[in-house]
Fold each of these.
Amino acid sequence: MKRVLLFFVGSILLFSFGSSKLIGDKNFSDLSTGDFLFEPPVLYNVTPSIAGEGDTVLLTGKFLTGTTGVFFGDVDTPAHSFRVLSDTTVEVIVPQQGTNKLKISTSLGSTTMYNNFTHKGPNFTNATPIFGGTGSSHVLTGSNMSSVSEVKVSGVPVISFTILNPNQIRFIKNTAPSGPVSVKNPYGTTVAAYITDSDPRIDSIKPISGTQGDTIIAYGRFMYDPAAVTVGGTNVTKFWVIGPTYDNKVFFILGSGSSGTVTFSGPSGTRSFGDFIYFKKVLLCPGASIALPAGKTGSTYGWQVNKGNGFEAIGDTGIYSGTSTATLNLNAVPSTYYGYAYRCSIDGQYNDQQRIYFRNNWVGGSGNSWENPANWQCGSLPEANTDVFIPAGNITINSNVVCRSLRLATGATVTVAPGYNLTITN
């Protein structure tokens, strides 16, 4: 049985007999072994001092029995494996990277040794520049670059790389997004830099459908220098950029075009976002008839309508005729069909959508009364599902009136007589 004598002189000193140790003023916690081991690990050396991935090295020091981890390099890459041989020796399998720094940890602490180990794998700390798009050139500076066989960005091989000297590599960036740079040689792989992709990027487009004259906004990054913006392969009428270089948005006005991808092209690269729905706006007077052309020639035709819940096939019933031909006829279309979209499947391929809108413009010429049908383009009064445009004049309303929308040109006025209401539903 061991006997322990404690002397309190400023700090606690512990003497134990038998296989005892003088430990000093430590906060001891584990009494299970009979010896009290409270020292953090100490490293003296690593042999060999130069090795590659998968090689075995020996760490020598003291207080290594409780080793919980061994780490290499500035980013603390864990060893592939380790085995404690004794309190003074640990056998370690070298990981894929980690030059210069070695760290060993136990439950009582950790210690780091510098400048005693060199990894035979490639070694670098940064890439210059850190921003780049597809085809941009970057340089890695470090060591052990002469036998590099692979360079990747975001896990994707770069377009090409050139070994400038044992300490430098130049590479041409791939189309991959932002991500880490990894370099491989026969002795290991190092991941130690990050490239921020500066190719133009489109995150969203609002709205995702439109017609000629509509303004659309594309939200994204690095869209500061577009040379062209196309929708379905057709150039837009006008575009302009708002916002900083990194997070910005592009406004563009639709011209005549077709459904398809929205594409931005410029010196910094090309990006596309799809699918944008281009539709043709068909303006009608309530109760008018219209013929909608398929716009393409084929052997089979099938017309569909979307009333707001998805497209569905239509047949020759009610107001429709020619539903299996190149021309769809709509007869005496009621204004309740406002916003209905039509498309035709031509040999299995859809044409651009055509959407119906009802508009009644003020033409005047027969006084200023809203209630006089002769003052309206359609020869009838606006309805609840009618968009109204008044380009000029001073119109008076002497009844309760309802319309979907009302737009007045500069200088035009509308006066509602007392006791009556003008209701605009949209």
Amino acid sequence: MIDANVPYLTRYKIVHEAISTATKLDRLVIVSINGKKAMRYEHFRLPIPKFVEFLRTWGEAGVVKTKTKTATKLTSKGSSCMFVGYAGFHAGDCYRMWEPERNYIYITRDVLWLKRMYFNKQLPSHQE
């Protein structure tokens, strides 16, 4: 969360998402058990998850499509969100996106990636 520039008090809202994603990614690390090198998924004879082909950086910014068929033309068509994980029991390109304004998690694959982190890096303030 430090590398994603998440403000200190905001971290408490999404710490469970960070831990869940870190656990999923930790199982992808190649380890040696009884002389055999493989991912933990392979050691325990589990299928490799579908999201492996669609890895993203935790904390990356994206715009999630929120427009419905009945929405008027002047309403907002998307929400700026932060990537916080991979959706379980969905296709590999289905992401968990957190919208801080409403504190809501979208599970979607309709994401326009902004190729930057959601929170900007805070520069240290110099007090004189």
Amino acid sequence: MATKKTMLDESIAAYLTHCETALGHSENTLNSARLILHQFLRHTGNKQVVNVTHQHVYDWFYGPSGLMSFRISANRNYKRNLAPLTASSHNLYRAKAVGFFKYCLERGLVRSNPMMDIRPRKVPKKVRQRPSPHVLLTLLDTAKLPRDRGYLATAMNTALRSSEICSIYVSQVDLAAGVLRDVHIRKTGDYDDQPITSDLATELRVWLTAYTTEIGRPFEDDDYLFPGVIRGVFGGMVDLPDGTRVQSITPSRLQPKKALKRSELIVQKALKASGLDIKYEGTHTIRRAVARAYFDMLVESGEADIAALRMTQALLHHSLIATTERYLGLDLEREKRDRSLKGKPFLSSMVSQENVVPIRKATAGE
């Protein structure tokens, strides 16, 4: 049972357990919190939580060896120079620390909030790529392997995250019903039957035919839809019929029981082949582009803005509609404002023309 004498490491462990069991945080969210809070533990040292003050937290962020300073990593096996955190990373660290100390405050483990002097930083807006539908379709033709084309087609027709696509088994593909069954949505922990478009159905049939041909057997329930690959290995020199000697290499082969791991490379290769920037880009680039194309299609077909936004929210599996709006690069209220004002009469439209006195006439009568 936690007491005011509880040590910092014990409180962190209890908090992470609380996040997993009571709050249902995903594995990625838990790992992020664990990494950040353990960095604070190493920086501050293990002490009773009640003795952790705002100065300890302030020094962790802004002290001479803090997160916002040039410093050397604390890894004993691999020392390297670290640059100050970016504004977005600063805010991420802050958010994880805020969650932890809120937990401690609610249980009386700290006397006051140690985060009082740590304010969020303004993050410059980044212009994120959202390739047009035409460009997205050209990406398909850059894929050299059937598996890679199938992965790209799935991303383009579902807007699923990379981790969600890579966790799908062949047994979840129901082409007759037109759905991917029980796709695990990692961020929310939900399971969703994802609709298969006719475009995706065509691509999946081609890929599944090539897949089963290559592995030389029928599919099994635990075969991944997009498997990993064992790369070819160079061997000794061999003589060809024409007398030349070349180095032998065993061919690459699919591993149906292991999920595709480096899926972002597939997207980056396609983007690069199409002349697009690949820095910080990957499956989320496709996800953003597909979401915006879907929203625009809905609006053009006559859906109201808010209805189109909610449908796009469902496509992206976002918990908050505000997240979807930011994700699309939209500001619906501003866009509605612009449509209502740009190039249209304003005050004059609110006043009857019979009651309007021309300015020159009114001046002359004075």
Amino acid sequence: MFKYKIILSSLVGAVSVALAFSASAQINVNAGVNVNAGVNGNPIPSGVDSATVRARIEARYGTSTPPMHGMASTTRMSSTTRAENQQQRIVKVQGQSDTEITARIDSLNKLLSRIGSMVKISASDKASLSSSIQTEIADLTSLKGSIDTDTSTSSLKTDFQSITKSYRVYALVLPQASITAAADRVLDIVSSFNTLSAKLQGYITAAQSNGVNVSTAVSAMADITAKISDAGIQANAALSKVSGLQPDQGATTTLEANTAALKGAQADIKVATADLAAARKDVTTIVNVIKDSMKITTSASASVTASTTASTTTR
């Protein structure tokens, strides 16, 4: 009988220990459960000292109260974290926006200087283009101020997108001004070619009068006249295509029209540039003919002088 009591006592002790570990494990999993209430609302099993359970919790969490997962304290912590993350995103977008806007303003200011040096564009066209660029600079500066004070991610997103969607500095304003400047350059070169052509024609006529074969030069001069005339036509066509363009403000039809106009104007400038390159080659051809004619004339003159000298000496 005594033997059975010992066995029973051992079993009770083993069960108590198992229940204690089970309770501890459940508390670890369900950390939000009140210790005094036991596990899952059940009383702490008999034979397990609550002080022991608390000691185990303190050893694991550093406190007798387990973390309140999913409770109000965690919610407050998450809200704080979300606010901090949102602020970080705002600061990041603001920094990126400032960089984008500053780059555009710098490019526009450079264009203003370039427009000031244009010589063939009419004063009214220059004034109109300069005014458009200055307006863009003012608007971008204002947008930068708005973005820097944005506290809402939604309004910041809208403002950031407007840098490219509304202002179109890189998509419209810069290409428009660059094409205008290129056209002005072409027209200036055409003017220089016209002055040069008149001088070259004088040399050709003189060489022809001296009996020099200038057919190659005459052909080259005809080509110069045609090329510089076409270059001027192409440059003016490019100006006509881009002079009245305005930002599309998100309108697809306007965007497509602007894109087509810019591409057409760029093609015009490309043709004009090719015309001028061909005219330069023609100038080289004419100069070579003139040089050869001068050699021939000089040689003939030398021969006449030598002959005259010899004849005079003989006499």
